[in-house]
Amino acid sequence: MIEITQVNASLDEAGDENACLIVGKRVAKRVLRCKDSEIKSIELHRKSIDARKKRDVHFILSFRVELTSPHLEREAVDSVAERDRSRVRAIEDDGSSFPTPVSDAPQERPVVVGAGCAGLFAALTLAKAGLKPLLIERGDPAFRRSHAIDLFLKERILDPESNIQFGLGGAGTFSDGKLNTGTKNPAHRLILETFVEAGAPRDILWDAKPHIGSDILPTVVTAISQRIEQLGGVVRYRTKLVDIRIDASGAITGIDVQSSQDAAYEPIETKHLILACGHSARDIFELLKDHNVALAQKTFAMGVRIEHPQRDIDRAQYGASAGHPALVAHLPNGRSVFSFCMCPGGQVVAASSEPCHLCVNGASLNARDGRNANAALLVNVTPEDLPNDDPLAGIELQRACEAAAYRLGGSNWNAPAQLVGDFLAERASTTCGKVKPTYPLGVTWTAIDEALPQHIVESLRLGLPLLGKKLRGYDRPDAVLTGVETRSSSPVTVTRDRTCHAVSTP
């Protein structure tokens, strides 16, 4: 296999996959000096946009080319001209694959807790190995879950077990939903291919910033859960982990689950427990602490969602093209403020999972054609910022901010909101400007200071003008800040060894 990178293509000549492949074949024949008949296959491997020069916005493509024999491939790579050698290389097949069925599967099922992305892929991997996992999820299947979310949005009745955070697919199904990562793990391709097999659009295989969309993801995660069951696994919804059982040596012997609020605890024997419960299953961290499972504080981030007109962001970053950058500003107080989870053409969503505790997130549909762009605008919270060394101190800080946001919004699930101009001037807002907030339950115009720690408020005030210098209009006075964003990452982690086992609990 040969990889050809750094192929420039105009926006017109590389609009879709077929057009990109025409470009790729032309480049492969020229650079590799091969004939049509010698090209066995060619695939688009990566597609990104270069907007460094506003008058020359174009695509950068890379391709994987297979010739009809390894001998031809070696000859082709050796013949590449000096000017092209930096972008042509021979590669081995670096793809990951699911395991094949094992011959000595234990009788007890391994148990996976949580059917978000991590839990689904853990259970799918175990199922592919013939281990018939039990996957338990406290929330609903995807489509029943959407009814619970609709009830919250229409009647303001929150289901603490089935909402934006909990249910099949986890938080990513109805909020965020992007597939970006900074890691180089070889399993990435396998993950993306699994999503495509389950119904995701093919363009996630090559887009530099792949995105599925909250309108398509429910179908995708449902298909993955069905595949787990076809392979002998069991998926149980509305089933909550309520206790773990540990023997005298400290090892797991089983768990207790509860299938409804009034049901008796049901014991399940297992020696193999994967916790993929996500950052919002706070009761699980409390349970682990009660059982002396080693936990540790970790750095996380909190802040607000910021909304701008989508076309203004596009114009500032790409001229006549489309997209959005991630931004960061390093501040004189030693902290940083940064954008995260950009949702182009999306909306701010109601991400609460506990009564009287309000938090927000963002989501985009696959088309990403809404009027506003929104992103998290965050500041890090380090263990040094917390009041004590309790491993759950970060969770308590999140809860305090969410409770304050609920009160500021009017204690009716309205979200507190403030214009950037008013926030910078340290005055409460009373109405919106040209940017109309998209939070579906409505906003209460106020000052958001009370809902966040002082160091975050101070850093946001220092950082917004600096971000406005990096991206024109980012600090426009009528951009909308909606609070609070508290769930960008977990404030606590289970202490694990190199094999991801809990150091305290085999």
Give me the count of strands. Answer: 22
Straight-line N-to-C gap:
42 Å
Rg is 25 Å
Q: What is the helical fraction, as a range of percent?
A: 25-40%
Low-confidence stretches: 320-324
Question: Structural class of the secondary structure composition?
Answer: alpha+beta
Report the sheet-strand fraction: 15-25%
From the spread of the alpha carbons, the general shape counts as globular
- Adjacency order of strands in the biggest sheet: 14-15-18-13-21-19-20
Largest sheet, in brief, is:
7 strands, mixed
> Total helix count?
12
Determine the mean pLDDT: 91
Describe the structure.
With 506 residues, the protein is an alpha+beta fold. Helix content is 27%, strand content 24%. The chain contains 12 helices and 22 strands. A 7-stranded mixed β-sheet has the order 14-15-18-13-21-19-20. A hairpin with a 5-residue loop joins strand 8 and strand 9. Helix 3 (117-128) packs parallel to helix 7. The longest helix has 17 residues, at 454-470. It starts with a strand and ends in a 12-residue tail after the last strand. Mean pLDDT is 91; it is low at 320-324.
Defining traits:
seven-stranded mixed beta sheet, four-stranded antiparallel beta sheet, single chain, alpha+beta, 12 helices, 22 strands, 24% strand
